[in-house]
């Protein structure tokens, strides 16, 4: 494990309790690191860091900056980071580090483990025996009427269906369709928000903590419908199956809504903040056509 | 920690190394590895102390904000410490809205051929700014008794 300070740096993925369980998990995963070399551990006292060696020419400050600014390279880095952490996270408790934490050599990693021992140990203790699950709630009209652009709304106005093209009635029918469509959307959003309240409440029966991510949009999250709430829950191993089943049961219970479960994840969303201080997303500043979803499970219950 | 944990984690057990959990998309991964996870300062001796989320956000913001936004990674807009720069860049949606407002305000006014509404707006704003600065220097040269009134009058004309 000697380092060549000029040529190689040490990339740190995560911190875990040191010991045979960690060494065994690393050996079994047989993971290759960022640059093809093996993923290995650097231990200091009760803690071990999951690391790999990377060439300085790719991970030095300038090169790394270039990688982080190139979304394709960023994606590759992110997937490799995530993949390595994921490969270990089922077998040992891991505290995932944020992308691109680098040291000049193993001594630097040991120093970090030594100096941060108290903080790191406390975090690991909180995460022991748990995994993270993602739950996303969507308003999705395609779930209602994939073929017909006009969602079923209240019974159409008189003459709406019989109007012939080219007459004044055709224009009215078109406006009617637009209004019906808008009404269906409005109902889908309202239903999705009620569903969010129920999901949060039900998940609370299994989870020991939760976090709100920003609702997803854009090309990175290709899916139908609009993401109304993007939640993460910290769930003990022994409740994982029941949690998953309970969340899956919400999918499709209301027309125009969809619930998607991802996981298990390494507990990224619970690595930094204490349970009491998980920040709310700045939902109110988001520009959307519907009111922001707030952490008000009781609301959903009241309206349901 | 027992060995059977991996077995109980059915969705990951047996899945190829590096595979994201079922149902995950790239946004799921990025929002975790970039926006969550413990931030620990790297080794100061190689000057990577600042490679952490804040820096990544800023660099994305400077380097490729449009692409990042298009891909749905735009949390900096909601981060008070980062939003000053971000707010000055209107999003595509804002531009669209501004343009639409402009169209509604302007009614049926003719747009010169080959000039988009956005270009026209830029041109008009530039003209307005020039008029304002002209007015201001004129007011500065005017007798001390009336500049205030003159300026507010000028602004009214600008708006009409």
Structure description:
The complex is a heterodimer of chains A (304) and B (160). Chain A is α+β, with helices and mostly antiparallel strands and 304 residues long. Chain A is 38% helix and 22% strand. Chain A has nine helices and eight strands. In chain A, strands 2-3-1-4 form a four-stranded antiparallel sheet, with helices on both faces. A four-stranded antiparallel sheet of chain A has the order 6-7-5-8. In chain A, a hairpin with a 2-residue loop joins β2 (40-44) and β3. Residues 1-5, 146-163 and 274-304 of chain A have low confidence and may be disordered. By secondary structure, chain B is an all-alpha fold. Chain B has two domains: 8-92, no CATH class; 118-160. Chain B has helices at 4-8, 26-33, 53-70, 83-88, 92-106, 117-141, 147-159. The termini of chain B are far apart. The chains are: A alpha+beta (304), B mainly alpha (160). Chains A and B meet through β1, α3, α4, β4 and β8 of A and α1, α2 and α3 of B.
């Amino acid at each position: 494990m000697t380092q060549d300070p000029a040529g190689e740096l040490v990339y740190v993925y995560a911190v875990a309790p040191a010991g045979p369980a960690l060494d065994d998990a690393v050996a079994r995963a047989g993971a290759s690191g960022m640059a093809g070399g093996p993923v290995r551990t650097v231990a200091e006292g009760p803690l071990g860091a999951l690391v790999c060696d990377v060439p300085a020419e790719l991970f030095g400050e300038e090169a790394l900056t270039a990688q982080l600014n190139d979304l394709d390279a960023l994606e590759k880095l992110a997937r490799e980071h995530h993949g390595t952490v994921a490969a270990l996270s089922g077998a040992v408790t891991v505290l995932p580090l944020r992308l691109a934490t680098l040291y000049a050599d193993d001594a630097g990693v040991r120093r970090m483990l030594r100096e941060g021992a108290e903080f790191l140990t406390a975090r690991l203790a909180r995460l022991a025996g748990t995994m993270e699950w993602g739950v996303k709630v969507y308003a999705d009209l395609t779930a209602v009427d994939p073929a017909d652009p006009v969602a079923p709304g209240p019974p159409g106005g008189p003459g709406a269906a019989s109007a012939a093209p080219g007459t004044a009635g055709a224009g009215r029918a078109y406006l009617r369709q637009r209004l019906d469509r808008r009404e269906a959307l409005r109902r889908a959003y309202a239903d999705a928000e009620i569903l969010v309240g129920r999901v949060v409440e039900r998940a609370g029966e299994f989870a020991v903590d939760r976090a709100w991510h920003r609702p997803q949009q854009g090309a990175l999250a290709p899916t139908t419908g609009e993401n109304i709430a993007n939640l993460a829950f910290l769930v003990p191993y022994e409740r994982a199956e029941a949690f998953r089943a309970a969340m899956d049961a919400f999918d499709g219970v209301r027309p125009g809504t969809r619930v998607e479960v991802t996981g298990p994840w390494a507990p990224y969303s619970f690595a930094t903040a204490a349970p009491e201080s998980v920040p709310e997303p700045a939902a109110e500043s988001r520009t959307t056509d519907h009111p922001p979803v707030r952490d008000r499970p009781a609301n959903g219950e009241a309206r349901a | 920690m027992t060995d059977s944990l991996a077995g109980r984690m059915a969705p990951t057990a047996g899945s190829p190394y590096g595979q994201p959990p079922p149902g995950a998309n790239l946004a799921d991964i990025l929002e975790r590895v970039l926006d969550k996870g413990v931030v620990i300062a790297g080794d100061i001796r190689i000057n990577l102390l600042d490679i952490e989320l804040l820096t990544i956000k800023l660099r994305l913001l400077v380097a490729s904000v449009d692409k990042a936004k298009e891909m749905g990674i735009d949390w900096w807009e909601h981060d008070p410490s980062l939003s000053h720069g971000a707010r000055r860049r209107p999003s595509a949606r804002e531009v669209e809205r501004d343009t639409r407002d402009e169209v509604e305000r302007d009614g049926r006014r003719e747009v010169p051929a080959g000039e988009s509404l956005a270009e026209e707006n830029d041109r008009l704003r530039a003209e307005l700014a020039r008029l304002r600065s002209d007015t201001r220097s004129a007011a500065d040269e005017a007798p001390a008794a009336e500049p205030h009134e003159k300026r507010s009058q000028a602004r009214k004309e600008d708006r009409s």
